[in-house]
Amino acid sequence: MLARICQFLIALVFLGLGGWALFFPGHVMDLAFTQAYRNDTYVARFMMACFGAQAVMFGIMALVVRWEARAFAVFAVVLIPFFVFNWYFHYEVPVLTSIGMLDFAGNLIMFVACLIGWRAARKDEKGIGGIVRL
């Protein structure tokens, strides 16, 4: 049950931030990007909305499939480069504003949920079949 809650928390991050980008792309760009890197064109808003649509799609999938321990572990590892991305584009090349660092907060929430979910899923899987992978 705890693993499923962690999975729903991950989905919530994707649905929340992705939905914001999908339905309000201009708003996201105004708040999340510094003035020097802001580009308020139709194509920029379109690409932001596409990014949001993909995040919403993944959030929906995270709601309807059941993750095993391996899925939590792999997703945690896959998140690591995004922390580097957030650091680089906030501190080295100031593209992201403090509000843009909501992406970092979402990644951190998902990373912690992955660790907790991995542990809980391992325990669930051990109880069911006795053999745990990863």
Notes on the structure:
The structure is a single chain. The protein is built from five helices and no strands. It is an all-alpha fold. Helix 1 packs across helix 2, helix 1 packs antiparallel against helix 3 and helix 4 runs antiparallel to helix 5. The longest helix is centred in the last third of the chain and has 28 residues. The radius of gyration is 17 Å and the shape is elongated.
Give a short synopsis of this structure.
It is built from 5 helices and no strands. It has 134 residues and is mostly helical.
Sheet with the most strands?
Answer: none
Straight-line distance between termini: 19 Å
Helix content: over 70%
Order of secondary-structure elements: HHHHH
Q: Could you list the spans in which at least 5 consecutive residues all have pLDDT below 50?
A: none
Count of DSSP H/I helices: 5
Radius of gyration, taken over Cα atoms and rounded to an integer in Å: 17 Å
